[in-house]
Amino acid sequence: MAIHEILKMGDPRLLRIAQPVLQFNTPVLDALIRDMFETMTAAEGVGLAAPQIGVDLAVVIMGFESNDRYPDAPAVPETILINPVIEPLGPEEEEDWEGCLSVPGMNGVVPRFSRIRYRGFDAQGGAIDRIAEGFHARVVQHECDHLIGKLYPMRIRDFSRFGYSSALFPDPATQPRD
Ligand code: NI
User: Fold this and answer.
1) For residues 145 and 94, what is the distance between their CA atoms, to the nearest angstrom?
2) Cα–Cα distance, 117 to 105 (Å, whole number)
3) Rounded to the nearest whole angstrom, what is the distance from the C-alpha of residue 62 to the centroid of ligand 1?
4) To pair with 66 at 20 to 30 A between CA atoms, which of 74, 79, 140, 153?
5) How far, in Å, is the centroid of ligand 1 from the Cα of 51?
6) What DSSP designation does 3 have?
7) Residue 127 CA, ligand 1 centroid: distance in Å
8) Span 118-142, pLDDT tens digits
9) Which pLDDT score, from 0 to 100, does residue 175 have?
10) What is the mean pLDDT of the chain?
11) By 3-state DSSP, what share of the chain in percent is helix, strand and coil, each rounded to 5?
12) Ligand 1 center to residue 40 CA distance, Å?
């Protein structure tokens, strides 16, 4: 197991379209996922995509039990999501603050679909098919964007609500996380 360096915005490896995983239930895939969880935990993140550690594969992980910005939000279950496909359930969007481990020290307000269906596979190749809304849906959309070379600043429409976390949220306890 190993904690990996997280690539920062500007690194061209974050702009690639990730390759699909073709073989499940392999030692290589299991090791990647273990490293991703270890790296995400060390960075206190709520989600991580394989491209963020320089691995060009369509693998994301996510999960948290509580979030300071969403004290009433249900926890996002610990999820390994491979080769994901997202389908918006209706045109409704909502805006909220996001951060990203690849954009350290900054936050911005990002519009996301309010309700989505997402599908994909777990590490053994088992099917995942879920409906999500609110913060859960936001995290899925943010992480899956990493697989198509999109970082959240590319989704911002109002740049008056983008900036340094320390200026936007002087109380560190209230800073949005990713
Ligand atoms: Ni991110």
Assistant:
1) 17
2) 31
3) 11
4) 153
5) 10
6) P
7) 24
8) 999 999 999 999 999 999 999 999 9
9) 73
10) 93
11) 30, 30, 40
12) 11
The position carrying tokens 């709520």 is 46
pLDDT exceeding 90 applies to what percent of the chain?
Answer: 84
One-letter identity of residue 99: G
Q: Where are the beta strands (DSSP E) in the chain?
A: 47-49, 59-64, 76-88, 93-98, 106-113, 115-121, 127-133, 162-164
Structure tokens at 76: 């996002």
Do β-strands 106-113 and 162-164 pair in parallel, antiparallel, or remain unpaired? antiparallel
Q: Does the pLDDT value for residue 178 go beyond 80? A: no
- Which contacts of 164-168 are long-range, i.e. CB under 8 A and separated by 24 or more positions? 164/105, 164/106, 165/99, 165/105, 165/106, 165/107, 166/105, 168/107
- Each residue of 69-103: pLDDT tens digit? 556 666 788 999 999 999 999 999 999 999 999 99
pLDDT band at 173 (very low <50, low <70, confident <90, very high): confident
User: What structural domains and CATH numbers belong to the chain?
Assistant: 12-174 (3.90.45.10)
Please give the single-letter amino acid code of residue 167. Answer: A
**Alpha carbon distance 60, 34 (integer Å):** 12
* Distance of alpha carbon 121 from alpha carbon 111, whole angstroms: 26
